[in-house]
Design goal:
With about 230 residues, the chain is mainly beta. Helices cover about 10% and strands about 60% of the residues. The protein has a 21-stranded antiparallel β-sheet that branches. It comes from Flavivirga spongiicola. Keywords: Signal. It holds the Pfam family MORN_2.
């Protein structure tokens, strides 16, 4: 009985000592050391992390209140030099949903999104320092095969965009300029056979569009201003 009392006393002292070192301020009134916050009117943890004279450092953990339990929803790894962090988002079961760098609230650099039922990539995209999609963007099938391949420039689609079947057969290929369809476009069936081809001009079909069946031309339509939608 005496040992139990001593043990409980030690735990109580440790708890009180620990609590006194949490949520502290430095001499300038800035948050310093370990901080923990709970959801309003609960004891459920909302976030925890460390401040260095007002600046977040190291790993911060953020939680959701699910049935009165703190469930990890995200982590942000800070450094002392700037506002850039490395962020991970989690499902309620602890699986990583996505991860990548941020500058304040802006997504920057390479971001990875994962398949719902595995750790394989679902999407890989890139952002510039202003938070705009920039560069290559890929979407993947669960087997790792590319489903979509696109390119962005300052947040807008630019260049060739290609869609694939799960067996790597091209299904369609478009050209974008400054976010609009502009240039040659082709559609294929699941066998990789060309079924439609034509051009877009500033987002609209333009000129002669050709339609195929079993490799043979079966129809043409003129989408130019004077011959719009007329068969050739």
């Amino acid at each position: 009985m005496k040992k139990i009392i001593i043990t409980l006393f030690v735990l109580l002292v440790y708890s009180l000592s620990f609590s006194q070192n949490v949520n502290q301020f430095d001499e300038n009134g800035k948050r310093h050391g370990i901080w923990k916050k709970t959801f309003k009117n609960t004891n459920v943890l909302r976030y925890e992390g460390e401040f260095l004279h007002g600046k977040e450092v190291g790993v911060f953990k953020f939680y959701k209140n699910i049935r009165k339990k703190a469930v990890l929803t995200a982590t942000r790894t800070f450094n002392e030099n700037d506002n850039k962090t490395y962020v991970k988002f989690f499902t309620s079961r602890g699986k990583v949903i996505s991860e990548g760098p941020m500058d304040g609230k802006l997504y920057i650099g390479a971001w990875k999104y994962y398949q719902k039922t595995s750790d394989e990539l679902l999407t890989l995209e890139h952002y510039d320092n202003k938070g705009n999609l920039h560069g290559e963007r890929f979407v993947y099938y669960p087997n790792g095969q590319i489903a979509e391949e696109q390119n962005y420039n300052n947040g807008k689609l630019n260049g060739v965009s290609t869609w694939y079947a799960a067996n790597n057969v091209v299904l369609k290929a478009f050209i974008y300029v400054n976010g609009e369809l502009h240039g040659d476009s082709k559609y294929y069936n699941s066998k990789g056979e060309l079924i439609t081809e034509g051009r877009y001009k500033q987002g609209k079909k333009h000129g002669i569009w050709k339609y195929y069946e079993n490799g043979k031309l079966i129809n043409e339509k003129d989408f130019s201003p004077k011959g719009k939608y007329k068969k050739k």
